[in-house]
Design brief:
Blueprint (H helix, E strand, L loop, with lengths): L4 E4 L5 H4 L1 H13 L3 E3 L15 H17 L4 E3 L2 H16 L1 H12 L11 E3 H9 L1 H7 L8 E5 L8 H4 L9 H7 L4 E2 L18 H17 L4 E4 L2 H14 L11 E3 H8 L4 H4 L9
Helix pairs in contact: 2-12, 3-4, 3-5, 4-5, 6-7, 6-9
């Protein structure tokens, strides 16, 4: 269907904590004729950005240098990884001293820096590279009118002059991808607010409060599911919500579904392939 190829970067959390995001992303892209190439890659650097900024930039730059060496654009389904990889690109261009230090470290491994490498999140790859018309044409089971609340997350949208993901105040890429399946993205006031996950283990009460507000807002807006496109956000709304808000029935009423699982359902892929355990009937 297409000749798109990417170096695939799932990041660190998906494998051990969210394997269904990996399985469903691979399945969806294969169904669309997109090739995901695997390589041994390190962490994007996001977890240490507030501890050692140079180390965070080096980690991200190393991933990008491997992509450059393989002459492939890079695709990640994790918005936190996407954000930090774009941070690495930005600061390698902005800071001469940092760039010289990181270039030296890369050279020790025979790697070379290039700021021309293309970084895509799953959503932007589908819209910008594949094209929404291709996605629409591949839909076999339209989710016509199924009302969902799309949750953007923070790290891909902001800071916009670094990430270049979408308009941070009025983004549309997520809604447009969802619309290609026939589902309907409902307007909801808190769609751009943080899920609370970055505060976990720092201020759990505040993290849970942010999550409660978002879930309540999505329910009140008429959504039947929350759709995520970020590893950390899905962990917050999925297992995190079930573990910490399980006793509060109203907060269990809104399932949290990965965008790759929503897409895979519309493409006619099996529930087993997508890891759809506990899903509502989307068909």
């Amino acid at each position: 269907m297409t000749s798109l190829r990417y170096l695939y970067f799932p990041g660190c959390k998906i494998g051990p904590f969210l394997p269904e995001y990996d399985r469903s992303t691979r399945a969806v892209m294969a169904a669309l004729g997109v090739e995901l190439v695997d390589a041994e890659l390190n962490c994007c650097g996001y977890p240490v950005r507030e501890v050692d900024f140079t180390a965070a930039v080096f980690a991200g730059a190393r991933v990008l240098a491997v992509a450059s060496q393989m002459s492939l654009p890079l695709l990640t389904p994790c918005k936190c990884c996407y954000g930090n990889l774009m941070q690495a690109k930005y600061w390698m261009k902005q800071s001469t001293s940092l760039r010289e230090q990181v270039v030296g470290l890369l050279a020790d491994e025979g790697l070379h820096w290039s700021d021309e490498i293309v970084v895509r999140h799953l959503l932007t790859a589908l819209k910008t590279d594949l094209g929404l018309h291709v996605l629409r044409d591949a839909v076999k089971q339209p989710l016509q009118g199924y009302p969902v609340a799309v949750h953007y997350g923070c790290h891909a949208l902001r800071p916009s002059d670094v990430t270049h993901f979408d308009n941070p105040l009025a983004p549309t890429v997520f809604e447009s991808v969802v619309a290609a399946t026939g589902a309907s993205a409902v307007p909801w006031p808190l769609r751009l607010e943080c899920c609370g996950r970055p505060l976990w283990e720092k201020n759990n009460d505040l993290a849970l409060s942010l999550m409660r507000r978002k879930v309540s807002d999505a329910i009140e807006s008429g959504a039947k599911a929350m759709i995520t496109a970020c590893t950390y956000c899905q962990l917050q709304f999925g297992s995190g919500r079930m573990e910490h808000l399980a006793a509060q029935t109203s907060y269990r009423e809104l399932p949290s579904i990965l965008v790759s699982q929503l897409l895979g359902t519309a493409l006619g892929l099996s529930g087993e392939t997508l890891g759809k355990k506990g899903f509502p009937d989307l068909g």
